[in-house]
Amino acid sequence: MSQGPLAGKNIILGVTGSIAAFKAAALASRLVQLGAAVQVAMTPAATQFVTPLTFQSLTHRPVLTNLFDPRSELNIDHVAAARSADALVIAPATANVIAKLACGLADDPVTTTALATTAPIVVCPAMEHHMYCHPATQANLELLKSRGVTVVEPEEGRLASGRRGKGRLADIDVIVGAIRWVLGRRGDLAGRRLVVTAGGTREAIDPVRYITNRSSGKMGHAIAAAARDRGAAVTLITTTPPPAELAFGVEVRQVTSALEMYAAVEEAVRGADALIMAAAVADYRPAQALDRKRKKSGGDEEIWNLELVRNPDILASVSGPFVKVGFAAETDDVIANARAKLAAKGLAFIVANDVTAPDSGFEKDTNRVTFVYASGEVEPLPTLSKAEVAHALLDRLKPLLA
């Protein structure tokens, strides 16, 4: 994972003649940063918006712009590129190119590569609102979907025409998420259903105030992304907005309180293979949430006694023919406390960490965890990124799913 989630992947980025072509440069840069080898192919119209040199500088590879370049070392570049591709991503995809793809036309480096490749294809439309909504464009997109093409829907917003509507190229992070999902569909967790929770619950005091904790949801979100990238069907139940990359390939259910999370988990685990409880669920909630903001009474009230009642222990309460994995965020006696939780909740293993450590815990991008197993074994890991911890967790979960 240290090399990036797309390390070793060959991705062809097809760029067509849209004003959104400048965003394709940012996408190319992101894919390279994630470890992919990126080969850019451009239609003649695309070169009017962004020069091939821009993409060559970002990818460190010559750009395919000519079907019959006599200087090419590959001889028919699009065929050679198509043969080695793990995925073809067309972003932006104009209405014209979408129509060509639907009809099987091939008269430029992008459409010829699309016909020549057997790799999965991701199409990211970008155009004026009425062009996108036109029945012909919609029919062409539906035809492409029926052939197995993944379509990343455009966003609504201000368009190049100055008007507002649906037609803006999807967010780069959403496109990256779609690529990771497409590349991972045949991963080692394909066919498995995982439920992952993330974030700290908020327990309402009144319409203004609430009780919560410092959990950012980063660890749970990283687990959901890693499981998606390895082919699992993932349901993410989270209290914090997930990153845009999880918009593709992950079913996200947003909740707020512990009781809402409990209800969502009970429903989601039906038919699941595993529940990974990374959320920091509040142990207590106010006995009664006020329907109006509580005011100071005359300014002489020094103490506010807030009555709390216990929340249900979600992980201990839900049961079924699925594997349960928990987290123990501790400040002292980390392993002893983790072992107690492991036994009380009936877990296969628990992931323990000291949240007072400078490289571990809430709101950080790294974590230093210890896996504590039902067998009694204790396995400490070094400081890793949360993405690396997520994959380590899934590596240990996978044999238990069999």
Structure description:
This protein has 402 residues and is α/β, with parallel strands linked by helices. It folds into two domains: 10-183, Rossmann fold, CATH 3.40.50; 189-292 and 302-401, CoaB-like (Rossmann fold), CATH 3.40.50. The chain contains 13 helices and 21 strands. It has an eight-stranded mixed sheet, sandwiched between helices. It has a five-stranded parallel sheet with strand order 2-1-3-4-5, with helices on both faces. It has a two-stranded antiparallel sheet with strand order 6-7. Strand 19 (369-373) and strand 20 (378-380) form a beta hairpin. Helix 1 packs parallel to helix 2, helix 4 packs across helix 7 and helix 9 (218-229) crosses helix 13 (386-401). The longest helix is centred in the C-terminal third of the chain and has 16 residues, at 386-401. The model has no long low-confidence stretch (mean pLDDT 93).
